[in-house]
Write a structure and sequence with these properties.
Blueprint lengths: L3 E2 L1 H10 L3 E5 L5 H16 L5 E3 L26 E7 L8 H9 L1 E8 L10 E4 L6 H11 L6 H14 L10 H12 L4 H7 L6 H11 L3 E3 L2 E6 L1 H7 L9 H5 L7 E7 L4 E8 L6 H6 L3 E2 L3 E7 L2 H18 L6
Parallel strand pairs: 2-3, 2-4, 4-5, 5-6, 8-9
Antiparallel strand pairs: 1-6, 7-8, 9-10, 10-12, 11-12
Helix pairs in contact: 2-4, 2-5, 4-5, 5-6, 8-9
């Protein structure tokens, strides 16, 4: 996918808008919320009062970000001149907030970094070479000469850090570290971000991991586990999650792909995928109606845990067969 970056056109549309809405994807991660509030704070500096929304609101561990308290978990009855969708590869990923926003907005800006982006919206700021959507936003702000102050820098660096797992993914470039340096110089605290995101887990996450450990299987280079609803609720969670257990699984030496199957109350399974460099799980996710990156992707698939496993595992085996481990 070739980068599609209409910096000036997007800035003109936002500057001309009286009402702006920013939404991000369901089950938001650090890049989703970092992009949401980072861009929101930037637009406030440009004289706007944007509405920020995501289904379910901001996860507790990301509430330290400046502007997080302004994020809505559901939208009021209103119309907007511009809606900006951040970090969502397709319209469905933005959930109810995105559906309402698109139906009540005159123009949609698609701002993303996923190679699986479907190209929705009228104006595109999509760069699959970027390590995070927050990188795309930072480059947009630099291009339009918008000063980056601490309340903008902290969320954007959070997106950069979390989507690269602390600058450890294979798509990190020298320019990535240059941007991190710029954001730190603008007032972002790398120490705080690391402590509050990558190096932080609630006790209930360990309880969930303990249950998930009982379901681990390793076969043909694929390590996987199931999280039934009963285990989720027993650990104290209301919404499907693996508390990033999949990132622990991919560290296993004998595995090149990791998968966690999470049962939902809606007769479906949320699938989280990770891979080592040289193996592409985004192809699998996209085939299942999801999206993501070569090394981190996901999808929601209708069916029981057993039914979804039966459908997904052959696709993962093909991904293993078509890949080759890259060590440098």
């Amino acid at each position: 996918m070739i980068p599609n970056l209409n910096w000036t056109k997007a800035a003109a549309a936002v500057d001309a808008a009286a009402e702006v809405l920013i939404v991000t994807h369901v089950s938001p991660d650090g890049d989703a919320i970092g992009s949401l509030v980072g861009l929101g704070n930037a637009l406030i500096e440009r004289g706007k009062r944007p509405d920020l929304a995501v289904d379910g609101g901001v996860p507790d561990y990301l509430r330290f970000l400046p502007g997080a308290d302004a994020v809505l978990d559901e939208l009021p009855a209103k119309t907007w001149d511009v809606m900006i969708s951040v970090d969502a590869s397709d319209e469905g990923r933005t959930g109810i907030a995105g559906e309402i926003g698109r139906a009540n907005s005159r123009l949609v800006i698609n701002l993303d970094h996923h190679a699986t982006n479907t190209g929705f919206g009228q104006i595109h700021l999509v760069d699959p070479m970027a390590v995070s959507t927050s990188e795309v936003i930072a480059r947009w702000l630099i291009a339009i000469e918008q000063p980056i102050i601490p309340s903008i820098a902290q969320p954007l660096l959070t997106g950069l850090v979390t989507d690269t797992i602390g600058f450890r993914t294979s798509n990190v470039r020298p320019e990535t570290l240059d941007l991190a340096r710029l954001l730190m110089a603008a007032g972002a605290s790398l120490q705080t971000i690391m402590a509050r995101t990558l190096n932080s887990k609630p006790y209930k996450a360990l309880m969930l991991w303990r249950s998930a450990m009982q379901h681990i299987a390793l076969e043909d280079g694929i390590i996987s586990s199931d999280i039934p609803l009963s285990d989720l609720h027993a650990a104290g969670y209301d919404e499907p999650t693996d508390a990033d257990f999949v990132s622990l699984l991919i560290q296993v030496d004998e595995a090149v792909i990791a998968a966690v199957f999470k049962e939902t109350p809606d007769s479906a399974v949320e699938l989280s995928l990770r891979s080592k460099p040289g193996y592409d799980v985004s192809v699998v996710a996209f085939a299942l109606g999801g999206g993501g990156h070569r090394q981190a992707a996901g999808a929601t698939v209708n069916g029981t845990l057993a039914e979804v496993r039966k459908r997904v595992m052959p696709l993962l085996r093909t991904a293993v067969e078509q890949g080759k481990l890259v060590n440098s």
